Amino acid sequence: MTSLMQGLPVSRGIAVGRAVIVRFAGLPAFRRAIDPSALEAEERRLRRAARQASEEFLQHSRDSVGEMGSELAAILEAHGLIAADETFLSAIVEHMSRERVNVEWALAAVARDFGERLEKADSAAMRERAADITDVAREVAAHLSPTGGRVMETDLPRGSILIADELSPVNAARLDPRRVRALALERGGKTSHASIIARSFGLPAVVGLAGLCDAISPERPIVVDGDRGTVEPTPSKNRLRQALLQVRDTREKARRLRNRTAGAAATRDGVRIVVRANLELPEEVAALERWHAEGVGLFRSEFLYLKAAPRTPGVEEQRAAYEDLLAAAAPHPVVIRTYDLGGEKGIAPAAGENPALGLRGLRYCLLHAALFDEQLAALCLASARGELKILLPMVTSLSELREARRRLLEVAARLRVTKIPALGVMIEVPSAALLADRLAEEADFFSIGTNDLAQYGLAVDRANPEVSTLYSPLHPAILRMMKFVVEAGAARSRAVAVCGEMASERAGIAALIALGIRELSVTPVAIPGVKETLARVDSGRAEGMLERALGCSEPEEVEKIFGAASEPESRRETAARVRVELPEDARK
Ligand code: PEP
Ligand code: MG
């Protein structure tokens, strides 16, 4: 058994809890350890479920001969035969007894294994069988449990550490943070949405741990260290005790920092910086007061939609959520981003081969006008209750902004709403960054989404651990784009905020101050740390470093420059500065 697994740290803190293992990709399944004495009963469950699935397939096959032709009947008959196939069933039984796992997990593993082997076959007919295996396994799983193998509806026990292959935004949004202490995932990156949600919930998280689901024993106490990026599958009693003390210590330090940074943020040389909160769910509103946020800089409204799926949150449900946010944020503003669906925040219709470049964000909304109008209506109605601003995601051209504004005005007129919310543009695609001067003519404000700007600007998937070392918003090419955006905003007196994760990283903060950014929006728990870093950054000194940073070719060089700008100064430096600043006669 591995003693320590190293991954990518994505959410700080340390946690001790019992491992709950889930595989979401393919056929979702929980992994449970079973005693050898329970094997026979598990096998009986499997054979019963397989027989029922097989009989159903064969019955459907017979029924469909007349109606829909013989082709469908032949497919269904083949499914019925696979479900009863002894090679398939024996492989599942063998997996269960070898790994001592429950039947659901073994079924999913064998189906995946068979599917992968068939996909590599030379003949097209054999490759088609791969899809058949998945269909059959799904049906058998449905007969094994009433939820049909779906996970997350079964509540996780309190004190769990969720171990999974991946966590989609939908499943992440459905997590109950009171039950989960930490996350550890096989896939994902620093700015993938599971990581963002983990930070929002203040859950330590580590991603990019290949082979994790098979390396951990279910229900065992394990340690996840979100600072070092490690998972300890078999900690000793001593280590567990020590980790629990660390948990307490970290909590205490965080509490002290939160109290110390309750006031407004400013740089070391007294430049006032507005720090707002990024929220995903209306339940998080209490975080505004707790973490001393000056309003909401980004509300990712698509999580309302994803959480309600397959239902759609209508006008009234959305309006109530937006009004709650405004009430909690007052007297500060709330920036609500319209649905950023699609991409990795998958939605029902096939996302295509390349979802990040497909129907996503504003494009999706403009195409599904009824859904968009419903949201605009809720926003217009709620805006009577406070300072609400609308932010458009994934804008790539001026015409999209114009079309969104046209719809907003139309909806407002229909509702006789006269107080029209400000309409801003997220700058998160290179085309929008390089068109910022034109967009600034018509947008009321900008918010730079560095998570996607880095993804699209560097052609690096933000959720893929294999390329995570190439992902850096401090890349000089990204900084150059941001400089252009800040200047374009300033030329038209448009506020330019930053709401990507870069705004909560030490060197990133110094770089943003150097670029002239004066408004940051970050996950609430990060606010105290951001304020502390800001208090160390001298804006004049950071600005003086910008030219050199923009001339660099590598992100590491930029990181070094701005890392130095946000470091606490040494005693010697403080003494030298005080000497220079003191008037001549005071030195004597
Ligand atoms: C971003 O892209 O930087 C951003 C804030 O939006 P999201 O992370 O939701 O894509
Ligand atoms: Mg984005």
What does this structure look like?
With 588 residues, the protein is of the alpha/beta class. The protein folds into 3 domains: 5-26 and 152-255, Glucose Oxidase, domain 1 (3-Layer(bba) Sandwich), CATH 3.50.30; 35-149, PtsI, HPr-binding domain (Enzyme I, Chain A, domain 2); 261-574, Phosphoenolpyruvate-binding domains (TIM Barrel, Alpha-Beta Barrel). 50% of the residues lie in helices and 14% in strands. It is built from 24 helices and 18 strands. Strands 1, 2, 3, 4, 5, 6, 7, 8 and 9 form a 9-stranded mixed beta sheet that branches. Strands 10, 11, 12, 13, 14, 15, 16, 17 and 18 form a 9-stranded mixed beta sheet that branches. A hairpin with a 5-residue loop joins strand 10 and strand 11 (272-279). Helix 14 (369-382) crosses helix 15 and helix 20 (506-515) packs across helix 23. The longest helix has 30 residues, at 39-68. The model has no long low-confidence stretch (mean pLDDT 90). Bound molecules: phosphoenolpyruvate and magnesium ion. Residues 428, 449, 451-452 line the site of magnesium ion (MG).
Number of strands: 18
- The computed structural class is alpha/beta
Shape: globular
Beta-sheet strand percentage? Answer: 5-15%
At the fold tier of CATH, the topology name of the largest domain is: TIM Barrel
**Which architecture of the largest domain would the CATH scheme give at its second level?**
Alpha-Beta Barrel
Radius of gyration: 27 Å
- How far from one another are the termini? 67 Å
- Name the average pLDDT: 90
Regions with pLDDT < 50 over 5+ consecutive residues?
Answer: none
Largest sheet: 9 strands, mixed
Count of discrete domains:
3
Ligands in the model, by name, code or SMILES, are:
phosphoenolpyruvate, magnesium ion
Q: Tell me the name of the CATH homologous superfamily of the largest domain.
A: Phosphoenolpyruvate-binding domains
Name the helicity range: 40-55%
Number of helices: 24
